Every structure is written in C-alpha cells, then in structure tokens.
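User: Here's a structure from my thesis project, written as structure tokens. My advisor, Dr. K., wants to see whether a designed sequence matches the one we expressed. Can you design one independently, without my sequence as a hint?
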C-alpha cells in the first residue's frame, strides 16, 4: 500500500495523449501562420513589382509619344514658317529665304504635356542646321520626351527646297519667238512674222526672213516649271481613232495614235499633267466648250500631228520641261498656241505651221513654214505656272530620316 503522500494519479490513456499534443498543435498553428504570412508577403511583393513594371512600361511608352509629339510639332511649325515666307513673295534667292527661315523658327524650346501618374510629361526640342546646297537646306530636329526620370529621344532630318517665284511670264509671250540663247534661220523658205527676243547678245540672232523687231539682251528670266509631287501617278491614256473626255487630270502618258482625234470637253481652264505626251502621224486635238487647255509635260514630247484647236491660239498653252522634241527635230505639224519650254533646244525641220508664241532655250530653223505671232497670254486671266503660284509641291519639304536614338 502506498501512503497518501506517495500516491500518484493515473490518467486515462486519452487524457494523457491530449496533454502531450497541446504543444505540438500550437507549434503547427504558428508554422501555418508563418507560411501564410510568407506567401502573402511574396505575393504582395510580386504584385507590387508587377505594378511597378507596368507603370515603368507605361511611362516608357508615354515618353516615346511625348518625343514624337515634340518632333511633329516642330515639323509642322517649320512648314508653316516656310509657307508664310513663300506666300509673302519677298524672296528671289535662296540665301535670303533660308536666313529668315532660320531666324523665325524656334531653335530650342520645351513643350509641357501635363501630368501622368503624378509625373510631369515634357518634350525638349532642339533644331540645328545641317547640309547646305544651292537651293536646299537640311535641318536636324532632336526631340527628347520625358516622364519623370524616364526619357526617350527621336531624331529627324528634314530637307527644305527653295523654289524661286514664277515671276511674270507674260513679257515672254510678247514675242513670236523668244529664246534664252541663239535663234538661227538657215533658209528663206521659212519666215517669222512678229517680234523676236533673246537674252543673248547681237550675235545670238541670225535670221534670213522675218518681219518685226529683233531685241537682244532682254534680261528676262525663264522660271523653272514645277510639277506636283505625284505627277505621272495616273493612268495611261491611249486614243485609238476618235475619243472624247471631259476635264483634266494626271496621267503617266497620253498617246494619240495615227489618224486619231482626241476631243476635250472644257469647263473653264482644263489642266492636264503628264510625263509623256505623244501625237503620232496625222493625229489631232479638238476642243469643245469655253476655256483653255493647259498641258504640263514633264519628260517626253512627241509632236507629229496637229494642235490647232479650231484655229485659236488663245485656247492652248503647253509647258514642257524636257530638252528635245521628237529626238531633236520637229517636222510636218501645226501648232496653234503658246509653248513654254525653258530647257528646249528646238529644231524645226520639214514643213511646219506655228501661230502664237514660243519660248525656248534655243531655236534652229531649217525647214519650210511660218511662225506668226498671235497673243496667247491674257494678263486679265493669267495662267498659273510653276513656282509657288501653282501651290506647294511635295518635294519642297521632305523628311529625309526619322529614327529613335538609343
């Protein structure tokens, strides 16, 4: 028998197990909470990291758009200054034009685009002068867009071309024949009825049969012909037999086949732009309606037919930028109207019939025929020709390069 003091309580088995497992449960609970806390912290960190990355990517793209906005803003501003200077009509040479252009544009400034995510969005634009040519200048535009500390930079080079004003061409059409250089007539079989003018001296004119005055050293400018930038982008028109079309347009080439006739319905002045204009043997052009036909020919002019337009020279003016017609010679044709071809060395051979006025680089007459002056240019209703008067051509402001600087 045990004494009372030495007696020990003996617990049932289940109660003994619960007594021993109480500490383990607490430990497991603590470990579980630690795992959950660690996972939660990790997930929170990943979420925060993703949010930061998204914000950085957003700011990175926003910086690009800010740079692009600054670049385009400067381009448009430069275009407006260019057009204002042109339309002022105060410039006859490239040096004065580009000097004033440079002084009128903003060469360094900052654009403020507001705030994004409590960060200032800006673009810093700097313009510098680059390559210099006779009638063109290049300008480099650098635009740095920033959103907070993130920055991206775009760079572009633009080229601006100066085109002298067209000037008054009516004085050039006051002559039966006007040439920038020589006017030669080798036979009495041909005649010129009307005044003859040249920018050359006394030795530049050699005529056998003429009626009118000869004027030398006229000092009249022959402006270049300016074509639209998309000239020649149109269709090819081939006239077989007889065909009628209304209005003008832009063509890559116009071919009037042998013995074919093209009738053009006018509705006021009708203007045609084409790279190639070819009239084959015994072909012709006729007009209907009121107005004039104005043809701009850029590269190739073949005249082996008749353009007499109902016998009225006031109905037609041809602007031709090429250097030759029909491989250098013209024969067996009639032309009633005005011909303005400042680069053309005109050789008239065979039989010809010209009534109106021709303005060319040089003239050589070896064939038989007459050139009879008739007024083709109406000062009260002038014809827009080249230069800025014909509008701004696409190559007057050209984007040479556009890229991002790393």
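Assistant: Designed independently from the structure alone:
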């Amino acid at each position: 028998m045990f004494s009372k003091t030495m007696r020990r309580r003996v617990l049932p088995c289940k109660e003994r197990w619960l007594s021993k497992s109480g500490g383990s449960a607490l430990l497991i609970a603590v470990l579980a909470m630690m795992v959950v806390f660690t996972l939660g912290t990790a997930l929170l960190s990943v979420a925060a990291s993703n949010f930061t990355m998204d914000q950085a990517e957003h700011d990175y793209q926003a910086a690009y758009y800010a740079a692009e906005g600054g670049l385009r803003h400067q381009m448009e501003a430069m275009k407006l200054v260019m057009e204002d200077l042109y339309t002022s009509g105060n410039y006859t040479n490239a040096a004065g034009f580009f000097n004033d252009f440079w002084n009128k544009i903003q060469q360094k400034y900052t654009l403020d685009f507001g705030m994004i995510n409590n960060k200032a969005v800006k673009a810093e634009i700097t313009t510098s002068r680059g390559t210099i040519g006779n009638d063109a200048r290049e300008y480099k535009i650098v635009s740095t867009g920033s959103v907070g500390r993130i920055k991206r930079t775009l760079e572009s080079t633009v080229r601006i071309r100066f085109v002298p004003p067209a000037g008054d061409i009516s004085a050039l059409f006051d002559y039966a024949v006007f040439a920038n250089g020589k006017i030669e007539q080798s036979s009495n079989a041909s005649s010129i009825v009307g005044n003859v003018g040249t920018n050359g001296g006394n030795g530049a004119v050699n005529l056998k049969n003429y009626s009118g005055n000869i004027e030398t050293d006229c000092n009249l400018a022959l402006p270049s012909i300016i074509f639209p930038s998309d000239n020649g982008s149109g269709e090819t028109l081939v006239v077989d037999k007889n065909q009628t079309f209304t209005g003008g347009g832009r063509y890559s080439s116009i071919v009037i086949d042998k013995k074919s006739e093209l009738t053009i319905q006018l509705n006021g002045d009708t203007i045609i732009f084409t790279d190639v204009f070819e009239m084959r043997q015994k072909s012709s052009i006729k007009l209907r309606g009121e107005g004039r036909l104005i043809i701009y020919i850029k590269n190739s002019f073949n005249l082996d037919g008749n353009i007499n337009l109902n016998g009225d020279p006031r109905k037609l003016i041809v602007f031709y930028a090429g250097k030759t017609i029909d491989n250098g010679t013209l024969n067996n044709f009639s032309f009633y109207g005005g011909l303005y071809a400042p680069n053309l060395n005109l050789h008239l051979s065979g039989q010809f019939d010209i009534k109106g006025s021709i303005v060319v680089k040089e003239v050589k007459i070896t064939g038989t025929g007459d050139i009879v002056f008739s007024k083709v240019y109406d000062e009260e209703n002038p014809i827009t020709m080249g230069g800025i008067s014909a509008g701004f051509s696409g190559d007057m402001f050209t984007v040479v390069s556009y890229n991002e600087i790393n």
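When you compare it with your expressed construct, this may help: The two ends are 97 Å apart (CA to CA).
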